[in-house]
Fold this protein.
Amino acid sequence: MQLVVLDVDGTLVDSQALIVEAQRRAFSACGLEPPTRERSLSIVGLSLREAFLVLVGPSGPYERLGEEYKLAFQALRTDPAWHEPLFPGIEAMVARLARSDRFLLGIATGKSRRGVDYLVRRHGWDGLFSTIQTADDAPSKPHPAMLRQALAEAGVAAEDAVMVGDTTFDMAMARAAGVRAIGVTWGYHPLAALEEAGAEILISRIEDLAPLIGLDERAPSHG
């Protein structure tokens, strides 16, 4: 049995517009100049507290920024104009992995448990993930705790797992946990940075994951 752990923002869903706007509103609420789009996306993957610590430093209002961000994000999410679409091929790949008797699915994300629950419900993914690790469950990426907990919950050894993500934090976390690190090119961090952080390989389509992990439609499947 293999465990495939997926990041969320920048890997499963394209949430960049929502993230950047929520940050802009949070900074404005605190009377601060919002970061550039590039700067905003550079901290995607970190838990909120760590993300705002990076953006404003320990002497800045990082705690208040986190609270303002959550308020802005929740307000924006109620507006259909700010939805978080799945990236191309994601829905089919998740379904394909879920059907296989040879793979377990997991999530490791800087999102809150509430945010992940919303995503899972929205896309009809209830019951598909054997383990879900969020910012509420473990230290922020790149600390390996999320992956170590995912491995323990799934009952899978590190050598039988893979982490798929779009940020340097995902790659560094995977390496620290002894898990294969596969980077995706459609996310938010520069490709060279992913390689420097330990990506074993970069894929430009989620379909390219299948041969890397030995996923075969002819293998036994659930149901």
